[in-house]
């Protein structure tokens, strides 16, 4: 339960401290005094987002601190530890202290038992500490799409719903993957035709050797320049050959022969040098002779062949056309492109196997999802009967004695691309929360058929239905604190007293903090606070004070008669309090 709530520099609040008690804590006060501001601060303390606009005018930051007594609540203790994980929060204390700062600089701080935590962690923990029912929350009963959550909360089917959500998400992922594959499959044949055509062109070209194109360019140069090459080679041979009567000057072999003769002459004077160089010059003469023979053979092999040149030109043109066509900058890229096409073709042709694998996986998940959804639907049908009876009994205690309450469960119908299965020749849609539509129906008067709440119930009746549901759900959850911000909308008189009695009954199981304008409800309080607006130092402030028994009587008398408290209203207040005590 909440033992203490401290609020500083929040909205109209300068600095207040509220010490709540077990049981039913009532807050009353004039309209606009700031009762809902206090609930708003509590909301922020347990995870709602805070804004700089919430900071009191002229101040740099707002501070909210709430202290919970969590001893003797083992289920809550274990749940909080599970949520907190490795955050480092110390749960060994008997208290849980949440501190929240909202700064104009935007750098807010959150601490739980002096450990800094994220807003996400605070929100998750806060969801298990306080259930806040705001002024307009009862309108959620008029939204049929939310009814399924009320039923599932009563049935405590969180585990199976979580499993269904996970399977549904997996199914969605694999279905999206299949859609992408099928999109590729649609134009697969067209792509394959293009790939096969290109591969055929490259195969017909018979591109094998990595240096083929370079060799062709070389051959073309030789053929085009045959006469020039012959002249050059001829000159090389002449420069190597011995002199003859047809050639002027001396060739390399002539000059080397003279050098050899001189080396032999040198032997008379330096035997060592002569022997070393004589061998070297003989080797050189042999190599020059070999070189001469090589170029003679090369010269004999050179011959211009127009047909051969045409072949070379045609081959080069074919290769260059392919490079241009496939946008390849060189011959090496063209060779690699053929391998790339083969790989792409293989991947496209593998889609059939991939589709089969994905479809099998999808069907397996869909079957598991179907079985779980059917199981959840059966549990819902069973729990719907239980919850309907309990709500009817609660409504009798709240003055709606002839009510018939029914929870209608129907299967969802698929449209377009919804997931579905077939049962009794009917398609049933599966969503992330199962296969059911859930709607609350009610008949308030004997003989009338049950109809949707939105068509039948008034504001006061909706408030009582919500109170009945909250009371029932409070038996199944671990949340220790329930907050009601004007649950009494649309009720008065005897019904208001019934609502007060119901709140008091709930407060024996949970701590209740309730804002009300009705004296009948306020009279049931275990602790009563009055919220008022005061002016201090030319500034408006919201203040709160705990009421003594006499102050409580006066406050309830004010609720009865307005600003002017009379002896009659005092007497009525005392009677209301005494009557509430007896009940």
How is the biggest beta sheet arranged? 6 strands, antiparallel
By secondary-structure content and strand pairing, the structural class works out as: alpha+beta
**Arithmetic mean of pLDDT:** 86
Overall body shape: elongated
Number of helices: 19
Q: What is the radius of gyration?
A: 48 Å
Give the % helix. Answer: 40-55%
Distance between the termini: 24 Å
Strand content: 15-25%
Give the strand order, joined by hyphens, for the main sheet: 2-1-4-5-6-7
Name the poorly predicted regions.
Answer: none
- Write down how many β-strands occur, each being a DSSP E stretch of 2 or more residues: 17
Summarize the structure.
With 583 residues, the protein is an alpha+beta fold.
Question: What would your notes on this structure say?
Answer:
The chain has helices spanning 35-45, 74-84, 119-126, 144-155, 158-186, 188-205, 212-224, 226-240, 252-266, 271-301, 306-325, 331-349, 351-397, 453-456, 459-473, 493-506, 519-522, 549-561, 567-582; strands at 2-10, 13-19, 24-29, 61-69, 95-103, 109-112, 115-116, 130-133, 404-411, 419-423, 426-430, 436-443, 451-452, 481-485, 511-515, 527-536, 539-546. Helix 5 packs antiparallel against helix 13 and helix 9 (252-266) runs antiparallel to helix 10. The strands form 4 sheets. The protein has a 6-stranded antiparallel beta sheet, covered by helices on one side. Strands 8-14-15-3-16-17 form a 6-stranded mixed beta sheet. Helices cover 54% and strands 18% of the residues. It is elongated. The model has no long low-confidence stretch (mean pLDDT 86). The chain is an alpha+beta fold and 583 residues long. It has a domain at 190-349.
